[in-house]
Amino acid sequence: xxxxxxxxxxxxxxxxxxxxxxxxxxxxxxxxxxxxxxxxxxxxxxxxxxxxxxxxxxxxxxxxxxxxxxxxxxxxxxxxxxxxxxxxxxxxxxxxxxxxxxxxxxxxxxxxxxxxxxxxxxxxxxxxxxxxxxxxxxxxxxxxxxxxxxxxxxxxxxxxxxxxxxxxxxxxxxxxxxxxxxxxxxxxxxxxxxxxxxxxxxxxxxxxxxxxxxxxxxxxxxxxxxxxxxxxxxxxxxxxxxxxxxxxxxxxxxxxxxxxxxxxxxxxxxxxxxxxxxxxxxxxxxxxxxxxxxxxxxxxxxxxxxxx
Length: 308
What we know:
Arc Repressor Mutant, subunit A, alpha/beta, single chain, rod-shaped
């Protein structure tokens, strides 16, 4: 039994005439008669009562008509499901994020993406830069939100979604909070919250480069893996930290006070990029990259540091 036979049967049931049904199906009437006879033989039931004024369904034909329509609708649903998946309009996207990305950037992109592609399921997983890049390389993740600068494995591609700058996070009441902007030289010998070294780079690399270029050596008291951890240590009074500036309007409640770095080199750049494998064939990935690029172009530059 083929879908073509079922469609011919349904059209004949609707038209109640071999000639009208054949015309609608764009086939010869004898060919339609043969097809219906073969279907009846295969089902082992008479489906139509033939008469001088056309045909009408038997009891078996009426039952088969309901089932045939459901079958044809299911087949159309299969075709539509395949079309949506091929176009990247349905399916699953496995995304890896670091903690601070969930504060603002991830919600912004998801709110832009999901209304356009409501049939796509987003599955999120949290990790460090190293963990995310590893999972993207192995195919466990379709893409990862990673902090740059980062060492770039040759088979991975990176799409920048947000440029950022470093600023200082200080404990409330610290003497340097009286300054509107703080020169790097002021950090010499002060208790400082650094970031744990990573073989793929990230904030540890960015902060270390800034301090080395300035010839400044603060006293490292703690090392954090995530920005939110560093802010908690700052709020506890354990030291000063350099943190990305973009999220600071959403981190006032952390207990830290934020100030710009007065002499931060102009070529110091950090940010967030989407890392994905060059051989990833998930169509949904490319839809998400398109939406992310559109958002990166439309979001205006914001003043992220205000006097506290």
